[in-house]
Design a protein that fits this description.
Length: 246
């Protein structure tokens, strides 16, 4: 299977280098809290919670932190968290899709708009970027003792569209509707992914020079650092050569 999902690999490398541990944990805690409020505190009967816990383990989150997040989600008096998205254009027309989880929508939209405005971008209307992205399931699986050919046949049966290998991990891409099937397949194989998530992968990308790329990435980094932001997706193409320069 050919590797069209280079962006996910680059994003993972970049995340491993510069992501702050506290920010990663904050995102996961919100995922766990919302999962519990939606489907209860029992992972066996709550697929979203089971996935959030798996991601927490993949990020080496302590068990006590995971349990506190579950307890927080079970607390009826805890602040209500809302999931929302924002779409805009960054410098040089790069499409940027922002996923947030917040207890204050007014604060969040104000902050996201300010980030765009201060760094050469513009917040747009929701839906304006739908045609530019495909919603895909992306799984990062440590190679361990897995044999690539055998593993490939297993995941193809579960709906894998793409399987790549690099840096000691397999990256599996599925259609959104096959996301649950892949989770079940990995559970059947007793394989715990490093991460599993629904992502927005660009159908087409923009390639910019180094200065322009740095400007776009500065905006993306600032958006990602916002406490209400869970994920940021974009259609900027970062070549291997550009990644080395950056």
């Amino acid at each position: 299977m050919s590797g069209h999902n280079k962006w996910s690999t680059i994003k993972r490398k970049k995340g491993a280098l510069d992501a702050k541990r506290s920010k990663i944990f904050s995102k996961i805690i919100k995922d766990i809290t919302i999962a519990v409020k939606e489907g209860g505190a029992d992972p066996d009967g709550n697929p979203r919670l089971r996935l959030a816990i798996a991601n927490a383990k993949g990020a080496s989150m302590p068990k006590d932190n995971i349990q506190r997040a579950i307890n927080k989600g079970s607390d009826k008096d805890a602040a209500v968290l809302i999931e929302t998205t924002y779409e805009g254009k960054g410098p040089h027309g790069v499409a940027i899709f922002v996923e947030c989880t917040t207890d204050n929508l007014q604060r969040t939209v104000s902050n996201v708009r300010a980030h765009f405005n201060k760094h050469g971008g513009e917040l747009g209307q929701n839906g304006m970027l739908n045609y530019l992205f495909d919603r895909k399931g992306v799984f990062i699986v440590p190679k361990g003792t897995l044999q690539q050919e055998e593993f490939e046949m297993e995941v193809i049966d579960a709906g894998a569209e793409d399987l790549t290998f690099g840096d000691g991990v397999f990256t599996i891409t599925t259609a959104m509707e096959d996301f649950g099937s892949m989770i079940k397949k990995l559970e059947q194989l007793s394989i715990e992914p490093e991460s599993a998530s629904l992502q927005r992968l660009p159908k087409t990308t923009l390639t910019l020079d180094e200065d322009a790329t740095r400007k776009v990435l500065k905006l993306i980094d600032i958006i990602e650092e916002d406490e209400d932001v869970q994920n940021v997706f974009h259609n900027l193409n970062i070549t291997d050569e550009m990644a080395e320069k950056l």
